[in-house]
Structures are given as structure tokens and as C-alpha cells.
Amino acid sequence: MTGTGFGDRQAARRQLVMMAGTLVVVLVVINVIAIYGLDRIGREAESYAAVTERLIETTDLAREAQVGFKTQVQEWKNVLLRGHVAEDLARYTAAFHDQEAAVAERLDRLHDRAARLGLATGSVERLIALHAELRDRYATALQSFDPADPQAAWRVDHSVRGMDRPLNDGFDAQVAEVRDLAAARRKAVEAEVAALTRLHRQVLIGVHAGGIVLVLVWLVLALRALRRG
Predict the structure, then answer these.
(1) Distance between CA atoms of 136 and 160, rounded to whole angstroms?
(2) How far apart are CA 172 and CA 62, in angstroms?
């Protein structure tokens, strides 16, 4: 009996050791799951945030192109209103063409960026086409500008009046489209992170509950073994 009692106590101790080991394993598993879950949530948030940031930058680029176009139109008016002296005409015409080229370059960058983001590029291509058409019409109108004629500025400006409106409207629509897309993507980020957080919490709760049940089972078995001893 003594030998049997000693053996039972030894068995109980082994069970307690196994229970402690199991608890350690459960805690390690919980920590691993917690770290993995937090890392995944962080990586998803960073990924979505990066895309949202690029969309915001695209909106800024579209707005820069629009502001540049307004400056181009102002330079055109400078040509007509202040270009009655040869030196001034050359200076303002050069400024007009420089701004025209800058707008075209921004539109090309806007198209490339939209394509890289997987956005529809049709609206940007329409802006590029409108700007190219406007460039040709400005060039044609400028050929008829006679600096020596006091009425030339009025006639030339009248020939292109209102041509900038479709392009300005197109810029407004493009900026609004990308801005709305950025807002929608931001909401998607928040929803995705919230879903991952809920899933992470549920998994941790499940693992904790399983660990607690396992420890209780081992504890009951150990107590029974001790009583038998």
C-alpha cells in the first residue's frame, strides 16, 4: 500500500508538471497568436493607408494641373492685353507656352499615376485631349493677333472665349472623382481593420477559453490523483 501510495503521489506530481507545461504552451500559443494578429492588422492598415495616400496625392496632382491651367489662361490674357510691344509679346507668349507645357506634363503624370493605381483613365485621357485641342485653337488664334491693332486683343479673345470651361469642368470632375475614391478607400481601410480586430479578438478568446478548460481538466485529474494517494 505504501508503495502504491508513493506511486500515486509520483503520478500526481507528474500530472501537475504536465499541467504546468501545458499552461506554458497555451500561454506561448496565445502570445504567438496575439503578435501575429497585431502584425497582420498593422500590415493591412499600412497597406491600405499607403494606397489612400497615393490617391490623395493623385487628387493634389489633378488640382495642381487645374491651377496650372488657370495660370495658363491668365498668361494668355497677358499676351493679348500687354503684348503690344515686341519685347512684352515675346515674354508673355513664352510664359504662356511654358505654362501650357507644364499643364500637359502634369496631365501625363496624372494619367500614369491613375493607371498604376488601377483607376479608370478615361476621364484623364479626355482632359489630355481637351487640353491638346485647346492648345491648337490658342495657336490658331494667336496667329491672327496683330500687336499694332488696338482691336486685335478683343477679336482674338472673343474667338476663344468660353473654350476653357469644358476643361475646367473636367478638372473639377476629376478631382471630385479621385477625392471620393480616396474617401471610400479610407472607409474600406477602417472596415477591414475593424474586421481583423474582431477576428483577432475572437481567436484570442477562443484560445484563452480552450487553455482554461484544458488547465481545469488537468487540475481536476491532479486533485483526484492526490486524493487517491
Answers:
(1) 11
(2) 9
Alpha helices in the chain (DSSP H): 2-82, 86-116, 122-143, 152-160, 164-228
Burial class (CB in 10 A: 0-12, 13-18, 19+), 154: exposed
The answer to whether the CB of 46 falls within 8 A of the CB of 212 is no
Distance between CA atoms of 89 and 163, rounded to whole angstroms?
22
> Residue 80: is it exposed, middle or buried by C-beta count within 10 angstroms (0-12/13-18/19+)?
buried
Q: Burial, 79: exposed, middle or buried (Cβ in 10 Å; 0-12, 13-18, 19+)?
A: buried
| Residue 48 pLDDT > 90 | no
Place of cell 487540475: 219
Task: Give pLDDT tens digits for 36-47.
Answer: 766 666 676 666
In whole angstroms, what is the distance from residue 216 CA to residue 19 CA? 9
- Residue 16 CB partners (closer than 8 Å, separation 6+): 222
**Does residue 97 have a pLDDT over 90?**
yes
Give residue 29's identity as a one-letter amino acid code: V
> Is 222 buried (19+), middle (13-18) or exposed (0-12) by CB count in 10 A?
buried
